[in-house]
Amino acid sequence: MSDYPEKSQRAIRDEYVRRSDLDGHIHRLESSIKDLREEHRETSKETTRRLDAIIASLAKNNA
Q1: Alpha-carbon distance 36 to 14, whole Å?
Q2: Local structure of 25: helix, strand or coil
């Protein structure tokens, strides 16, 4: 006897995900987050280089 008499057994089963599907989804999310972190790191380095160049140029012009 089901705890959910209004639902068929198939409907109840369809509400759950298979562990392998969930693991695959989590792996893709982790990979995407890793890629985003790397992109952010590279962008931050480039921004720092550009700011350093601007500061150096301003310091040179004011000296």
Answers
A1: 33
A2: helix
